[in-house]
């Protein structure tokens, strides 16, 4: 279970990105995080694995208080938390295989991995993961020769290589064609349903939230303004999250 | 004064006030009209030009005329016109009329170019009247001393060829082979003796290797995004960048004369001089590349729980290795060019050979050296460019998990062995001796102390100032002449504007070939020709710079023409436009901004080079520096170097800013 209590983040520039955000996510949930650009979604996800250091508040995951861990303890703990990014964040010049294997780095000692050497078992599980994501034939091509949808699947494969208990997905479909959104989210749904991985995913489109999420939270200007089931987001809730001028748009 | 906020002013009165103010103080009217940038530009130009006219008149008697028993400069009249123009400009600005910018710029340019022309002692008629003197050199260029004919009529490589490239001589057999019984004791065996060009290649290779290795760690310290993570790192970053900029602004050859005092004449001094300058140049390029990496992968790997070393290995290294290699190859190209001239001051390599042959009057040997340099540099330029292209745009090799076949392992081993051999060969050939670094000549410390205590007495300042201005004007006029000559040729060297018939292809390859050939020889090596032609002095240096500017600007121009967007060309052709209309309406609007940018870039380069053409008799600040070093007046040499650092840094900054705004 992931528990976030009174999480606040103030950037050195003075911008308050999160104000006293508290919520809970049960194991196996697919939690959608919704809100406008700049509402604090990315900051929230990055505070959970402490890639961004929170200013105050408490984050507990399966009984471990993440906010109390030292830097090196946190690094080790990050192995259990996969992350998927809007811009995929692949090393473009490296092969798909190297990018996927990079998900294992946290488990490997430095000296071995410095020469691009990974244990054969990692190679096999990387191939298996790529097969699962339909990218088996792309293992040995450069990452930037893939399409956007394929690159994001490589991003998911990298996260899966960590054997994560939690996946943080920051706008995983915002840089993709709407048609591809379902394909990517179906893979994330698969991780959630089949492997029982808890997923926190920020999304823009409400119909994607209705289709995939099991629960949802809404952020507005860094404050938690909604928490509940996706179907509970009615017009009033929608306006509260996205503002009075917002209109619903649907994709496909 | 109560200034209404609405600009432009509509009333006649305020326009007259603005004009009147400008008549009193140039730019004041424009300031009154709330155009501070324009005001500053006008005031700066007018006062700068006034100073220039006064200096040129009093120091060099430029533009002198007698008027009412006194003497003055007729350039004051032009400045007066500019002053009037500025008042008219204020008036026109106030009335919201279009300003006559071109006229003002033209008046300013008349003054600048007239003074520049006179200061660099440019006399084009000497090119004709003294042509007889240079005929011998041109004759030698056609008949370089590379081959000789024996009595039987067979051609052989000449002795000079052996000096340049290398020869086989009989030497006593190495003791190891004698002991092994391969040769008898006292047996003479043929052994290769590399020539001056090989030495030059070795100098360029070693300097590139050393500077790349040393610039690598420095570049991380000079990268803003890395240093901002460390406490107090930003200060270190600023200091480091400033340090690199100062080192970079001092030309390799100036480093050369300093280093010679330290380790003595020879190839090793050349390697050191090239290395120091290259470290600064590469350090800047590397650190800018580090600053521009994509932070995404770093974040992603941090999020997987990877260690810092692992994050650097998998997220940073793959991003920076290809551009680093490309920059190193570019630097190798530049270092090879500089290695051909560093010997002029440092000894060693082909630069030293050229100085010696000219001193002996060996035109044919000098000509042979020029041909060999051109050939080698053309090849280096081509290899470096193609290799860089492959690294930056080509596919990186992606290997599967399959074990490497044996022959590939063998190939890697052979390649490694060859590289080691090349390294050892270059090491020996460029006479690298690290011990010398720790045993500086006893005078070195005294020289260094004198050098740092720069002489700021007014007599020295006056001389240095004059030569520095000469250098700047030399660069300006050379750039102008080179660019003007390059414009017609650049169209001939642009693929896309020529037709596809045989003659067009011939014209294209011929023009490109000539430009590449001329570009491959450093300005300093051309100086000798022009010294014979027009005599020692800034004019000879200026002409040498003009030749290399013509070649480089011509190449850049033609590439700019080749890179234009074909869309407008298609549109004008579709509308039935003629070839001339095509150039006027589709080509020119696209190429003028890059052309201006390249000209400014070339001026910037030329200022650096014109600080050294004086070493070979090309006048300007280099001549002065050489003289001060020759007379052991190191504190005065220090003044010269300080001037160079300031002028080059300011020009570098200004040229980068102007080009940024243009493109």
CATH superfamily of chain A, by name, is P-loop containing nucleotide triphosphate hydrolases
What is the CATH superfamily label of the largest domain in chain B? MetI-like
**Beta content of chain A:** 15-25%
Any idea of the CATH topology of the largest domain in chain B?
A: MetI-like fold
Largest sheet of chain B, order of strands side by side?
1-2
How many β-strand stretches of chain A? 10
How many individual helices of chain B? 29
Quaternary class: heterodimer
Question: Helical proportion of chain A?
Answer: 25-40%
What is the mean pLDDT of chain B?
86
CATH class of the largest domain in chain B equals Mainly Alpha
Describe the biggest sheet of chain B? 2 strands, antiparallel
Q: What is the averaged pLDDT score of chain A?
A: 90
The level-1 CATH class of chain A: Alpha Beta
Uncertain spans of chain A: none
- Spatial separation of the terminal alpha carbons of chain B: 40 Å
The main sheet of chain A orders its strands as: 6-7-8-3-9-10
Give the biggest beta sheet of chain A.
6 strands, mixed
CATH fold field value of chain A: Rossmann fold
What is the architecture of chain A at the second tier of CATH? 3-Layer(aba) Sandwich
Low-confidence stretches of chain B: 1-9
Give an overview of the whole structure.
- The complex is a heterodimer of chains A (252) and B (663).
- Chain A has 252 residues and is of the alpha/beta class.
- Chain A has a single domain, classed as P-loop containing nucleotide triphosphate hydrolases (Rossmann fold, 3-Layer(aba) Sandwich), CATH 3.40.50.
- In chain A, 33% of the residues lie in helices and 23% in strands.
- Chain A has 9 helices and 10 strands.
- Chain A has helices at 41-48, 71-77, 96-101, 110-113, 120-132, 148-160, 178-194, 206-212, 235-242, and strands at residues 2-10, 16-25, 30-34, 56-61, 64-65, 81-84, 166-169, 198-203, 215-220, 223-228.
- Chain B has 4 domains: 12-119, no CATH class; 158-194, no CATH class; 196-396, MetI-like (MetI-like fold); 448-662, Orthogonal Bundle (MetI-like fold), CATH 1.10.3720.10.
- Chain B has 29 helices and 6 strands.
- Chain B has helices at 12-24, 28-32, 36-60, 75-94, 101-119, 124-129, 131-142, 159-164, 175-179, 196-221, 224-227, 233-249, 252-263, 267-291, 295-304, 308-346, 349-359, 363-393, 406-429, 434-438, 443-452, 458-492, 502-519, 523-534, 538-562, 566-574, 579-610, 621-630, 634-662, and strands spanning 64-67, 70-73, 147-149, 155-157, 166-172, 188-194.
- In chain B, a hairpin with a 5-residue loop joins strand 3 and strand 4.
- In chain B, helix 14 packs antiparallel against helix 16 (308-346) and helix 22 runs antiparallel to helix 27.
- Chain B is globular and about 105 Å long.
- Chain A binds chain B through residues 49, 51, 75-79, 81-83, 85, 87-95, 97-98, 102-103, 105-106, 108, 110, 113-114, 123, 139-142, 155, 158-159, 162, 168, and chain B through 294, 296-297, 299-307, 309-311, 313-315, 318-319, 322, 395-396, 398-401.
